[in-house]
Amino acid sequence: SHHPPITAFHISNARAGVTFQGHCAQKTSFSGKAIQVKQIGHGKLTFTPNGASQPETYIFTLPHLVIEGLLFGSPYVELAQSSYIVSSTGYVAKIDYSGRGYFSGKSHSFKAVVTEMADVAGVRPLYNIEGSWTGQSFFKGGAVPSNAGPGGLFWDAETPRSELIVKPIEEQGEMESRRVWKVVAEGIRNGDADLANRSKAKIENEQRAKRKQEASAGTAHKPRYFEQVADDEEYANLTAVLNLKQKREETFRFRA
Question: What protein family does this chain belong to (predicted)?
């Protein structure tokens, strides 16, 4: 699509004082042996530590995706290039992703370095982390915090997670994603590409028709849950030290 859909999200835990929000969109291209996916958008985590008077903010940029294995009929997703986490507390984490090559390398690998914001080049790293984003990762070659796991464990992606609880489809609003894409998802799960494609096209054509009606009437589409903000100042301020190509970005504010 020339206008890829944008997914906005908002997750909060009022008791813990934690909010994570953001948006993402994808632009895809085909390289001959893989599908390259450029992710557009960012995430923002905000929380107030116990005893603190001011909240902390963390901006997450998004890595690129590469869908490999197409030539062999066994596609899989790799993360590619780099992403950053920038904190209002004055720290930066740069994460570099790599995958399995023809002759070497491991799938789903990453290396991360944590520095102070003034040392974004990583001359004096505070922590180095290496491992797999689908498995285990460890602090390497330097300082290891006291709360690290056995052997300097940073994170084990196979740690049991809380079950995601959602309302039954029939109780969801008519524009909630799981209800809108129900038939498409069933087609994908059952290997019925024809059903998935027909259902996807039906949804997209209905939305295009609605946009044309709105344009003819001179009205703008208004999302129910999110308000588009043309310039996210927190993103611009915190990522300024990174010298990113994308200096400024829009954001989508949740309608509480």
Answer: Belongs to the OSBP family.
The domains located in the chain, with CATH, are: 6-156 (2.40.160.120), 163-220 (3.30.70.3490)
- Residue 114 near residue 86 (C-beta atoms within 8 A): no
Distance CA 241, CA 248 (A): 13
Q: Distance (Å, rounded) from C-alpha 115 to C-alpha 242? A: 12
Supply the pTM of this predicted model.
0.85
Distance CA 199, CA 183 (A): 7
**Vertex 1: Cα angle to 67 and 77 (nearest 5):** 10
pLDDT of residue 55: 93
Please state, in angstroms and rounded to a whole number, the distance separating the CA atoms of residues 238 and 87.
Answer: 7
Q: Is the pLDDT of residue 3 over 80?
A: no
Question: What band does 104 get if pLDDT is binned at 50, 70 and 90?
Answer: low
| Contact (CB, 8 A) for 113 and 128 | yes
pLDDT of res. 187 = 94
Contact 35/27 with Cβ under 8 angstroms? no
18: left (phi over 0), alpha (psi -120 to 50) or beta: beta
Contact by Cβ (8 Å): 78, 99: yes
**Structure-block tokens of residue 222:** 């208004």
Residue 101 confidence class, pLDDT cut points 50, 70, 90: low
